[in-house]
From TrEMBL:
It comes from Chanos chanos (Milkfish). It is an enzyme of class 6 (ligase). It catalyses: tRNA(His) + L-histidine + ATP = L-histidyl-tRNA(His) + AMP + diphosphate + H(+). Residues 3-59 form the WHEP-TRS domain. Belongs to the class-II aminoacyl-tRNA synthetase family. This is histidine--tRNA ligase.
Amino acid sequence: MADKAQIQAAIKVQGEVVRKLKAEKANKEQIDEEVAKLLELKAQLGGDEGKHQFVLKTAKGTRDYNPKQMAIREKVFNTIVSCFKRHGAETIDTPVFELKDFDIAGQYDPMIPDAECLKIVHEILSELELGDFRIKVNDRRILDGMFAVCGVPDEKFRTICSTVDKLDKMAWEDVKNEMVKDKGLSEEVADQIGNYVSMQGGMDLAERLLQDPKLSQSKQACAGLMDMKQLFSYLELFQVTDKVVFDLSLARGLDYYTGIIYEAVLMQTLPAPTPTSQEQNGAVGEDAGVSVGSVAGGGRYDGLVGMFDPKGKKVPCVGVSIGIERIFSIMEQKAEASAEKVRTTETQVLVASAQKNLLEERLRLTAELWNAGIKAEVMYKKNPKLLSQLQHCEETGIPLVAILGEQELKDGVVKLRTVATREEADVSRAELVNEIKKRTSES
């Protein structure tokens, strides 16, 4: 097998092929074929000798963002990168703001990597403070077993699965109507499906379904239920079961899933923001609005990579994709609705002056702070108004202002102002660095 560097180089090239096809909006079959080649290359980094996680890159085109939007995107990106790295991911030449996928390839004991993917989703959504969320989980084997025992013909499994997948957007009666009138199921079969897809729970539901007179007759469903029990036991160890629910209505219509599937959704709706000129011109797209759909999803796809292996080698894979564009939109809407101030700079302190002709003193103090490792800045004007300097801090989120005046210079102090509370205190020049570090570490 080629060494790791060669494989990563090949992954980079193949990733560019996928990116170009997506940017050109090529047909789905062509994109899927190239994605499968990329997955096959990724799988070569996996195997039985250790754990390998991967990050794919996607293309979203070029858009202009204002400082607030950039700050939000940077927060999301940094949160995702930090989480992925905590879990040992290898970021393969992924451009800023395009990293969103985490995959584990290789032959491992059941449900251990699957549980880690769910833990990753839990960590990211918790750290971003998007609000209350749930991670729905199910298993394609349970779904297929359920369809079989309810009397769905084999050739209709996939089409009925796609109808069940609409339950998050449609009422059961509408879904049932589609099954019966459009897909040709009997009302009796549809009602049996309805009884199952209304069930939600945790490990207790998996245990109960293993005793279900009908579902227990399906070996496929029982295998999925046993794995579901194992999954929840690991999730308990990871301390994330408070947000994970076993939901039999979750279907995820993609055919390549072979086992566990999951989807994260926010539990609350968002107020509609006032459209910006960019949104009115159609630049933002469908994410702008009040509805909140899924913000992450994924599952196990054990058969996909092997389909493209010349020797038919099976390479088990499980992964998750974070809906970063939707998360960006949600965070922007929340910030706008709450009039929340978004910090758009990492500057810790602005060096300001209360009187004219103090530029040299401001620059001298700024240099002292830089030399001490403090992130400081100064306005590029000889005699800026104090009000303008304070407003700049409020607009950009700079937490502290070090104010110099003639009296402060005589007394050997600096007036340190906390922007949020507008409280001021005289701090000796010798203690200024320590005081700034103390205050910024507490915030």
